[in-house]
Amino acid sequence: MSTSTSPSAVQHEPQLLGQTIVVIGGSSGIGFETARRARAEGARVILTARNSERLKQAATEVDALSIAAFDATDPDALGSFFRGLPVVDHVMVTAGRPYYRRLVEMDFTTIRDLFGQHLLQALYVARNAIDKVRPGGTLIFMGGTGARRPAMGLSIASAMTAAFPALTASLALEVAPVRVNLIAAGFVDTPLSAELLGEQLEKRRRQLRTTLPIGRVVRPEDVAALALHIMTNTALTGATYDIDGGQQYVAA
User: Which of 231, 222, 224 is CA-nearest to residue 15?
Assistant: First the structure.
């Protein structure tokens, strides 16, 4: 008489159980999806965003530990937020938006603000996080790959794209043993992309599906999966991780 044994179910140990994650810009898109996935992996999640109504809705969906509505480009507001934080394990910053204008169309006041929104914001976050992020935890910033090739209208985006990896590497030394990493994304199908492209959104999606090596557009959950990997792999610091489906290598 023969007997058969069913394979035992493999138990998945939550990767972030007991850890606390702050997502600055966590009410939608990449930030929200990262918060959702982190919560599913056992993390406590703290969300911030400018829009208080969207923030409250997002917090309900991910069962956030707490929320804070403020402008993350304001150093005083950012400092106040960090002073009120408990010690946390990870901080991810997704706030901000790209700027595409030809030289003759540029608003230089806006440009000065944008540099503050990206590079200075990273410095503000890093300095405030020194005593608030546990050793071995990480700061994760968002950058891009789309402006690595010169093109009309990409002067500011190109400068940001070039500067952010160097800043990330230096900050990794400055705030060690807290880790600092950068995610460089191409087009990601988010509400912000829809807002920026308007009626051209579907055309852009079709173009990318036919030109990208992966045969599809990159989604927020793709970026979130990378963010969680960076959080959980404690050997990673000072690095830039591309996630654009190969967009930078093709005429997309």
Answer: 231
Using CA atoms of 45, 57, 123, 103 in order, give the dihedral in degrees to the nearest 10. Answer: 150
Structural domains of the chain, count: 1
Alpha-carbon distance of 137 to 232, in angstroms, equals 9
pLDDT per residue of the chain (252 residues) written in tens, 0 to 9: 445 444 445 567 889 999 999 999 999 999 999 999 999 999 999 999 999 999 999 999 999 999 999 999 899 999 999 999 999 999 999 976 666 667 677 777 777 777 656 788 899 999 999 999 999 999 999 998 877 777 777 777 777 788 899 999 999 999 999 999 999 999 999 888 888 788 889 999 999 999 999 999 999 999 999 999 999 999 999 999 999 999 988 865
The answer to whether residue 3 is domain-embedded is: no
Domain that holds residue 101: 20-243
Q: Which residues pair with 47 in a beta bridge?
A: 23, 67
Among the listed residues 219, 217, 181, 202, the one whose alpha carbon sits nearest the alpha carbon of residue 36: 219
Structure tokens that stand for 90 in this block: 């990870």
* Rounded (10°) CA dihedral 11, 16, 18, 20: -160
Cis status, amide bond into 177, omega within 30 of 0: yes
**Two tokens at 112?**
């000065």
Q: Is residue 117 part of a domain?
A: yes
Residue 170 sits in a domain of what CATH number? 3.40.50.720
Question: Would you say 208 and 188 are in contact if contact means Cβ atoms under 8 Å apart?
Answer: no
Strand partners, 40: none
